[in-house]
Amino acid sequence: MRFSITGIAVTALLTTQSVLVSALDLNPDDPKSIIAAAKVLSDNIMEMYTGNKSGGDFPGRFPYPYYWWESGAVMGALIDYWAFTGDAGNNPAVTQAMIHQAGDDRNYEPTNVTRELGNDDQSFWALAAMGAAERKYPDPPADQPQWLSLAQAVFVRQTPRWEPEYCNGGMRWQVVQFNAGYNYKNTVSNGLYFQIGARLARFTGNETYAKYAERAYDWLVEVGFVNGEYKVFDGGHIEKGCLDTSYNQWTYNAGIVLAGCATMYNYSAPGPDQEKWRQRTEGLMNALDVFFVWGTKDVMYEVACERDNKCNRDQRSFRAYLARFMALTVQMAPFTQDYIMPKLRTTAIAAAKQCDGGDNGRTCGMRWTVPTCDGSFEVGLLGQTLSALEVVQSTLILSAPAPVTATTGGTSKGDLNAGMTGLNYTGLRDLSKDPITTGEKVGAAFLTLLMGGVLGGFAWFMVTDRI
Ligand SMILES: *[C@@H]1O[C@H](CO)[C@@H](O)[C@H](O)[C@H]1NC(C)=O
Ligand SMILES: *[C@@H]1O[C@H](CO)[C@@H](O)[C@H](O)[C@H]1NC(C)=O
Ligand SMILES: *[C@@H]1O[C@H](CO)[C@@H](O)[C@H](O)[C@H]1NC(C)=O
Ligand SMILES: *[C@@H]1O[C@H](CO)[C@@H](O)[C@H](O)[C@H]1NC(C)=O
Ligand SMILES: *[C@@H]1O[C@H](CO)[C@@H](O)[C@H](O)[C@H]1NC(C)=O
């Protein structure tokens, strides 16, 4: 038996298509059909969620072996789901999760997750908070942490992790020394920092965030993780000056950097600065082709692992974020629409077709390039379902309200001191008064002299604090 979406959507499908092949056959021209499919997929996800079941996990957690970061990614997706569809059914669970996982210090470093805390993990929660502020997701009561201040807190936590002594800058992947990957600097951590900085700049109008963000983008280019053709690579090790590049191209990394540039483009005043970010956005957009050329044209696939069916649990979710960030890019840089929308629409149709499997007839497989559910449910069902949800709902982007800012209707309250608890540093520098100098940008030696002592002390403090 095929799962049927709703009477309305099925009727709509029957009138536009001669044969109803599968219940999640999606008509991207019909918002009702998209909304109905997105509801099925978000319900699939909430059925896996144990964070609000009695005897289940803490709020904001999916059961082991799903990592903490992926829950943050889910919350970000569900906030967009609410914003794009108007369905507030998941909001109580989402709000509860977002606040609980912020932790006692309201910074998305809850002590329970120290062992799995990478900068990227923390940033996925910050993205959800940033999205909540931009999409006017209902604000928590005043005595609870506020969405904007949570995103600011993460940015304040991460900025002193910038480390010029190795690879001329960049943050490490991991926050704590005992985690594997502490010696790795990668695109996802620095790219998310870049994107969050860009979005904070746009929301608050505070140039300081834009300057820190730009430093991160410049570094990604300098170290070669974003190359001259705008290909986006994974990372490198500090022992090698980060020059032992891992050339894997992951969908999410490309999307993270793309949406960061699109946001900087949107934030910049018309002129040379805006033109610079426009060119970068366009370059990164065109370089997305690598993810859309296998099997079926314009159907997204995970080039680094999908052809030989080696995508792991985390990697099965990555296409979700490329879809999310392509949609955000359309809003921030509308000139990208003609390139992006056909890809999202074609991919959404294909993704919906993967979601008619299992006993309930609506479980999602992994491979959108094959015509029916591939039945691979064992490795990372949450991630592949999330990927389907995000690409399906992204096709609603042209009718979704634009992300707000503090001056265009945003209500979320910020706090420049958020995130400072337990940190031994004076906070972000006001870069509008005290700019990052050329010497700081390019000179590793100079930077080591200037900041090495402070940062070294900070790193030591942070590590011992957590062990
Ligand atoms: C968990 O959250 C979902 C979505 O908000 C809701 O439908 C469900 O009733 C909640 N379960 C409990 C036990 O609160
Ligand atoms: C951390 O673990 C404790 C129990 O050990 C629990 O009460 C608390 O809710 C957990 N915190 C988070 C943020 O999950
Ligand atoms: C910035 O984003 C807004 C909201 O989507 C959009 O209306 C505006 O055209 C964008 N600015 C530029 C320069 O494209
Ligand atoms: C911008 O942010 C910086 C760093 O937090 C702060 O020092 C500065 O006062 C802010 N500027 C404004 C206008 O709020
Ligand atoms: C904080 O940093 C300053 C300057 O590096 C240092 O002198 C001081 O000992 C540090 N305090 C703590 C508690 O680590």
UniProtKB/TrEMBL annotation:
<keyword id="KW-1133">Transmembrane helix</keyword>
<keyword id="KW-0732">Signal</keyword>
<keyword id="KW-0472">Membrane</keyword>
<dbReference type="InterPro" id="IPR014480">
    <property type="entry name" value="Mannan-1_6-alpha_mannosidase"/>
</dbReference>
<protein>
    <recommendedName>
        <fullName>Mannan endo-1,6-alpha-mannosidase</fullName>
        <ecNumber>3.2.1.101</ecNumber>
    </recommendedName>
</protein>
<comment type="similarity">
    <text>Belongs to the glycosyl hydrolase 76 family.</text>
</comment>
<feature type="signal peptide">
    <location>
        <begin position="1"/>
        <end position="23"/>
    </location>
</feature>
<keyword id="KW-0325">Glycoprotein</keyword>
<dbReference type="GO" id="GO:0009272">
    <property type="term" value="P:fungal-type cell wall biogenesis"/>
</dbReference>
<dbReference type="GO" id="GO:0008496">
    <property type="term" value="F:mannan endo-1,6-alpha-mannosidase activity"/>
</dbReference>
<dbReference type="InterPro" id="IPR008928">
    <property type="entry name" value="6-hairpin_glycosidase_sf"/>
</dbReference>
<dbReference type="InterPro" id="IPR005198">
    <property type="entry name" value="Glyco_hydro_76"/>
</dbReference>
<keyword id="KW-0812">Transmembrane</keyword>
<feature type="transmembrane region" description="Helical">
    <location>
        <begin position="442"/>
        <end position="463"/>
    </location>
</feature>
<dbReference type="GO" id="GO:0016052">
    <property type="term" value="P:carbohydrate catabolic process"/>
</dbReference>
<keyword id="KW-0326">Glycosidase</keyword>
<dbReference type="GO" id="GO:0012505">
    <property type="term" value="C:endomembrane system"/>
</dbReference>
<keyword id="KW-0378">Hydrolase</keyword>
<dbReference type="Pfam" id="PF03663">
    <property type="entry name" value="Glyco_hydro_76"/>
</dbReference>
